[in-house]
Amino acid sequence: MATPDVFEFIVGVPITCHAFNADRSQVAISPNNNEVHIYSRTATGWALAHVLNDHDKLVTCIDWAPNTNRIVTCSQDRNAYVWTWEAGVQQWKPTLVLLRINRAATFVRWSPLENKFAVASGARLISICYFESENNWWVSKHIKKPIRSTVLSVDWHPENILLVAGSSDMKARVFSAWIKGIDAKASNPVWGEKLPFGTVCGEFSAGGWVHGVAFSPSGNTIAFTAHDSTITIANGPSVPPQVIVAPNLPFVTLFFASEHAIVAAGHDCAPYLIANRGSHWELADKIDGGRKKSVTGNSAFSKFRQMDSRAQAITDVELNTTHQNTITSVRPYAGSGTSVSKFSSSGVDGKLAVWDLLSAGIAGLRL
Amino acid sequence: MAHRKADVDIDDEDQFYDEAEAAAPVAELEAALAAKTADVRALLSRGNVAAALQTALNEPVYGGRDVDSIKERTLQLVMEALAATRPADIAGVVAELRPGQLDVLLKYVYGGMARPDLFNSALLLSWHEKAYEVGGLGAIVRVLTDRRAV
Predict the structure, then answer these.
(1) Are residues A229 and B138, on separate chains, in Cβ contact within 8 Å?
(2) d(CA A287, CA A290)
(3) Of A41, A158, A318, B124, which is the most buried if we count CB atoms within 10 A?
(4) How many whole angstroms separate alpha carbon B61 and alpha carbon B76?
(5) CA-based radius of gyration for chain B
(6) Contacts of residue A230 in chain B, CB cutoff 8 Å?
(7) Where is the protein localized (chain A) (predicted)?
(8) A contact test, residue of B142, B143, B146, B147 with most A CBs within 10 A
(9) Which architecture, in CATH terms, is A5-291+323-359?
């Protein structure tokens, strides 16, 4: 079983979201407030390099575009900023994005070509944002119908056109986010021939809020996880989806590690592996073996000392997992898009962990 | 005080309304329940508790006020099957349930626990214990999350 590399930036402060840069030498996190902290890797750990504090309220999501090296952040203040690196002054320069929403922004992701990004929000819509060079600012188009509640997560199809969105109206939907002037004419053999902006290419029901969604590397499969502790996997709009019913607490976040493997994590505080066994998917393994507790000193002695000093026996409140609270985000860390070898996870316990999928004992699983 | 009872949300076009369950007509549901009750009692009298419980849990009735009485009688029917099971057999009966049926069983267990004046909570707790052993926390979360109450 894998032992992950664990980093704790500010002890005890939850990490709302995290994003690494392209070469993984820097990481942007939000310490559960209106700030975004950028840490640089040093020989001994991480050093705080920049604090981006233009948002007024809690930062809900961060994404770092690997090729164009731009950061996009969104917040409960209903704004999104695109941050570009100014090498001359050694600072990140923010550009406000016109989201035109009246509720909090919840989630943001760059498109694969990094010329668009999608912002999910509590205004029951998704803002697809793109750069308008005539006016020199980021503008947005809205996908409104038929979303009936807060959109909690989005993920892009690798071909830059389609988008899957999970919402608290207990549905996951695949939309077209084709923008005139930005994208070439597009069609997709699985999700539809004609894809004008806002087309609903697929709609899937769940038994609870849809927390997390993901496209597979090929874009032919989607997976989403809902608050009824299930993961649903669908191969296109016309095939009946497969539902994996999990015995543990609900997952909130997931991604495809390859065409045949999904990593999911959530309220259970440990990441899980879901694998495709030829014809069907199943919950294959828990990627967290649990740690052996180190008992220091004489246990009988420490027991009586504890009873003496606190008037109680030792109470064990530590979980047998690396994360001590809900994992809110898992993201690929190393490897290609079609075969992720490492991934990172962050959560409410304020830890950021980097896991090695290959050494996690899953190499033996035929994936 | 009349203003306190006025539903101000009627004029809010952004209001979220849950989709009504597409339930069959009440008469059909009544007939189905009568048939189900006969089947369950027949199985119980032959001592086949597992089959009786599975029959009782099949196609649970969901929906609004008009089916309240049907839901009530279905709950009583499930409780009959639960009460007819010997404590030693509970684990075996639970193990035979399909995953979907297990979630429905938990719904009825919680439904029964909500009425301690009518049903035996000690019995329901032992059913809950065995159902939790098989279904885990996931089964409980599914009952809490599912909007279709029994």
Answers:
(1) yes
(2) 9
(3) B124
(4) 13
(5) 18
(6) 142
(7) Cytoplasm, Cytoskeleton, Actin patch
(8) B142
(9) 7 Propeller (2.130)
